[in-house]
Amino acid sequence: MTKDKLTPVIKLKSLTKRYGIGDAEQVALDGIDLTINKGEFIAIMGPSGCGKTTLLNILGLLDRPDEGTYHLGSKSVTNISSSRSAKIRNEKIGFVFQSFNLIPRLNVVENVALPLTYTGKSRIKSLEIASKTLEKFYLNEREYYMPHQLSGGQTQRVAIARALVNNPSIILADEPTGNLDSKASHIIMEELAAIHKQGNTIIMVTHNPDMTTYADRIITMIDGQIDSDTKDIKKDIQLKKEEKLDSKTESSITEKPKKPESKPKTIESEDTKSDKKATSKLKSDKTVLSETKESDSSVDKTKKSQKNLNETSDKKTNSTGKGQE
């Protein structure tokens, strides 16, 4: 995850919301602490009455908390005026409702163009932008259909197109697949996943656990409080992995055998090298001299032997001559 994605876009601190007075008072949100980073796809789950929709309404500036703080980006929006809330909603937040909330008397393209009328754009310009947005959802052929002429899946896709027409950075979806069959539900979720890949932050309330597979973070609420958050679980798992890795590294360092000390190489001086060469040459000369002496000795022995043979032969010859006389 990039540094840009780690930028908090929503930060709640001790957020509390109550309904009713006295004995009839009911705590819908009880001290919620929550940080949502840019580009996250969050699924909020929990039983009916746990505070999911109330939380979504406060995030969308449709309701106000009784206690705590709400920062949208770097600015506090806890106690801003209604007109300021409407402006921020129109610029930064897109809504997708379970009941679609299309206006029955307007056709498809007019419903999608409706948010643009609050930005000061002309009707013709607004309809052009709405038509281009519908093309992304392959609904341009039904631009002039009335809402009652559409299927449930088509109606919800029109509602998503309307939520995106102003290019908001945050999409709030309240049970977007609650009134759809399983096939249409997965088509809608695939489209939300594609929107998320473009960098939008999506916060979705759902009762269907199958839909949470599209999210990268799951928050479970019970009795107005956050019961579990997979972001915290992932942090714990990562910390445990790092601790395990550190312990293994320390163990390998302590058990690592010491290398035997290598003997320092002696640097011979030029005199030492000369002496060694002289000694080697002397030995070689002695060897040659010794071999020469041995060779001379062998030659002398051979000569002596030959001389003896000659003398013996002469003696024999002389003795033979005397006998003949």
Shape: globular
**Structure classification:** alpha/beta
Question: How big a fraction of the residues is strand?
Answer: 15-25%
Q: Please, what is the average pLDDT?
A: 80
How helical, in percent, are the residues?
A: 40-55%
Task: Evaluate the radius of gyration.
Answer: 49 Å
Distance between the termini: 134 Å
- Detail the poorly predicted runs: 319-325
- Describe the main β-sheet briefly: 6 strands, mixed
What sequence of helices (H) and strands (E) makes up the elements?
EEEHEEHEHHHEHEEEHH
The number of strands is 10
Output the number of helix runs. Answer: 8
Record the strand order, biggest sheet: 6-7-8-3-9-10
Oligomer class: single chain
Short description:
The protein contains 8 helices and 10 strands.
Task: Please write out the topology.
Elements: E1 8-19, E2 26-37, E3 41-45, H1 52-59, E4 67-72, E5 75-76, H2 82-92, E6 93-96, H3 108-113, H4 123-136, H5 152-164, E7 170-174, H6 182-197, E8 201-205, E9 217-222, E10 225-229, H7 230-254, H8 270-324
Parallel strand pairs: 3-8, 3-9, 6-7, 7-8
Antiparallel strand pairs: 1-2, 1-4, 4-5, 9-10
